[in-house]
Amino acid sequence: MADQARSLVIAVDGPLASGKGTIARALGARFGVPHLDTGSLYRAVAVAMLEQGLPPENADEAERAARALDVSAIDESKIRTAGAGVAASVVSAHPRVRAALLDVQRAFAAQDGGAVLDGRDIGTVICPDADVKLFVTADEDSRAWRRRAELVNRGEEISFEQVLGQLRQRDARDASRADAPMIKADDAIELDTSDMSVDEAVREAIRLVDARLG
Q: What's the CA gap between 133 and 121, in Å, rounded?
């Protein structure tokens, strides 16, 4: 396993609240490689825009914020709000923002020991040669309930209907954007977590990766 881990790159893609982040973190721990939630980069850019009173639709300012991003200074408490998520979906559709953050993500994947990255275009754009690719999904209602629970636990007041509406908007935007849309890579393994607990989803993901590695 140690020899394998030196070059092991795992790509985990999927829509909001599918469980991909939890699974990616668990895979990183299981295989001894660092994990990057690439969505946090776009959320951080979005928060930087919002804090300056700039609309996330402004591609020029979004690119400027992306190039000025200090990854080590990302504030998790700020980027995990519902508003940050919605704005991040808008920001991530700008091709120049994606280009600005491309090198950061690829450098993370290329580090000694390999890495696990999760997002929406890891297996198709960021790491097309990843050793293993997972596409984690779940039905809309399951994802909306999970996302609402996450936000409520953080102190936000938001209804299931509001979360479901935001989720549908983000899915549509992520899947239809011209640059690096959210799609399942041809060689990715699909994992539907709709009826799985967290532990069950993690166990199945580890089994799938082990099986793919042979």
A: 11
